[in-house]
Design goal:
Elements (H helix, E strand, L loop, with lengths): L2 E8 L12 E7 L2 H4 L2 E8 L7 H22 L11 E7 L3 E3 L7 H9 L9 H11 L7 E5 L4
Parallel strand pairs: 3-4, 3-6
Antiparallel strand pairs: 1-2, 4-5
Helix pairs in contact: 2-3
């Protein structure tokens, strides 16, 4: 799986100290996900530094990513990841948890994202360990870990 198109849009040309900047990022999944089933683990940061707007933006981005994969796997947003691909959610703060297994239900994935709350410290290592544990070594699906950076 690859990204065939990306587009960044920044809506301001200057940021004051302690200011904020809105960045929009558009990604289009490569069509090979239809013929090459892929297991994707989305790692999401729910540590204390994500409280407020960062967590809101991360949730929006994660749900948009899920929608992109939903449509890319069967050319329609029908609520199911298609073509044998699956997505799992791992979130982390002090420790990491698998919020879902590798599944195809878009509603279940989005509910897992929506349930995240911020708090605690940041343990990236545990998140990657949990993500790797979700993969079935016997599966012939490609295996991808996605960790958004905010």
């Amino acid at each position: 799986m690859g990204v065939t198109n990306s587009n960044k849009v920044i809506n301001t040309d200057r940021i004051a100290c302690d200011g904020s900047l809105r960045v929009s990022l558009t990604l289009t999944a490569a069509p090979d996900i239809i013929t090459n089933p892929t297991d994707i683990v989305l790692i999401l940061d729910r540590s204390g530094s994500m409280a407020g707007i960062p967590l809101t933006n991360m949730k929006l981005g994660a749900k948009t990513f899920i929608d992109i994969i939903d449509e890319a796997t069967d050319n329609t947003q029908d609520g199911q990841i298609g073509s044998g691909s699956r997505i799992g959610i791992v979130s982390f703060s002090n420790t990491a948890v698998a919020n879902t297994q590798l599944i195809t239900s878009v509603d279940t994935l989005k509910s897992a994202v929506d349930s995240l709350t911020a708090g605690g410290t940041t343990n990236h290592a545990d998140a990657f360990t949990k993500a790797i544990q979700l993969f079935d070594p016997a599966s012939s699906n490609a295996k991808v870990i996605v960790k958004p950076v905010l």
